[in-house]
Design goal:
The structure is a single chain. The chain is built from seven helices and four strands; from the N terminus they run E-H-H-E-H-H-E-H-H-E-H. It has a four-stranded parallel sheet, sandwiched between helices. By secondary structure, it is of the alpha/beta class. The protein has a single domain (about 1-135), classed as 5'-nuclease (Rossmann fold), CATH 3.40.50.1010. It is globular. Helix 3 (about 40-50) packs antiparallel against helix 4 and helix 5 (about 80-95) packs across helix 6.
Length: about 140
């Protein structure tokens, strides 16, 4: 299976949150894992916020950043291009998505289309609107149980 991780799923690779075991298990068994370049900044922002609100210590932040940098190198990273960004605009309008959620959905759709076989792809995300939008497009989503 090819796995696309949005930022909420990426963060679960490093934080002990509900859903983290499902993401970690899926990553372990995936043939390949993909995300969009914007997830880098979003993930680092999530780590910084966790420190600001007291969910992480400075030492844990350093550890998570180090682990994230290593994991990032293993990902297939989609870079912004006009076609994906324009598709994201259409998806944002169609489904009422936030900007970066629509970019993740457009990127996930691109990975899904490239996978080329049913059951060969799953989107890992934890935003209900994004998941519902993906399912409406016919994309398989990662089971959170």
């Amino acid at each position: 299976m090819i796995l696309y991780l949005d930022t909420s799923a990426l963060v679960k690779m490093f934080a002990d949150e509900p859903g983290a075991p499902a993401v970690r298990s899926a990553v372990t068994t995936a043939e390949g894992c993909f995300t969009h370049l914007i997830a880098y900044a979003e993930t680092r922002a999530a780590f910084a916020k966790a420190l600001r609100v007291g969910r992480e210590t400075p030492a844990l932040l350093v550890e998570h950043k180090r682990e994230f940098e290593t994991f990032w190198k293993s990902l297939g990273v989609l870079v912004p291009d006009e076609g994906v960004v324009r598709r994201a605009g259409d998806l944002a309008e169609q489904f009422g998505l936030r900007g970066y959620d629509s970019v993740h959905l457009a990127a996930a759709e691109q990975v899904y289309n490239a996978a080329g076989r049913p059951g060969a792809f799953a989107l890992a995300a934890y935003d209900q609107r994004l998941l519902a939008s993906a399912e409406a497009l016919g994309l398989q989503v990662l089971d959170h149980d």
